[in-house]
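User: Modeling request: complex.
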Amino acid sequence: MKIHNYANYNAMSNACAEIILNDLAAKPNSLMALATGNSPLGVYNQLALKHKEEPQLFNKLRIIKLDEWGGIPLENPSTCESFLQQHFIKPLNISPDRYLSFGNHADDPETECERVQTVLKDHGPIDSCVLGIGKNGHLGFNEPAETLLPHCHVVQLAKTSQQHSMVESLSHNPTYGITLGMADILQSKKIVLLLTGEGKAATIEKFMTQKISTKLPASFLWLHPNVHCFVDRNVLG
Ligand code: GLP
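Assistant: Request completed. Predicted assembly structure:
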């Protein structure tokens, strides 16, 4: 794992965007899996700025959503879908045929997971997976547990996830989510991990011990041969 340290969030985001742009120049039709939340937002904003100067850089880029809250209409501003549409899909002009999204149908989320798995099989592997770390060490919605699952699945959300800033203003917080699984993430050719955010110092410290545990899903990234980890030193105190 290559660890890159930065003094603050902006420096971290700019450097990470730079690496992503270099990779994209080398492979314009890259398939990128994208997390949502505050960790990657600065990176996405940088990429959107670049799109204004050189839109052609992004005209083959393909995107797959990493995870989604369950039981909220997709068009609700709190969903991962709305986040990605607002901060990536629209500003970077990703056409619908290049965006592999998924729904969160309350009646049958398992069938949607099976569909996502087929889509991934047909369009994968993921070239570049952009991840944040949850306060509890989750990746996507792969929550700390006795066992982890390899592929796209429906998951019971941990309390910390249910209180995430994306959904805290909702009258009913989501109790479940849909996420790509650990194998889907680990089969990505390259992984970009952003370590930033208030209240994560203890989790990041644990992650840095390199001890691998299902109780800290992000620790499995130590098994991957091509991870670039961007650290915002500001959050470590
Ligand atoms: C959320 C998202 C994840 C994200 C993580 C961290 O639950 N579903 O994809 O990586 O939690 O969020 P943040 O970057 O806002 O701290």
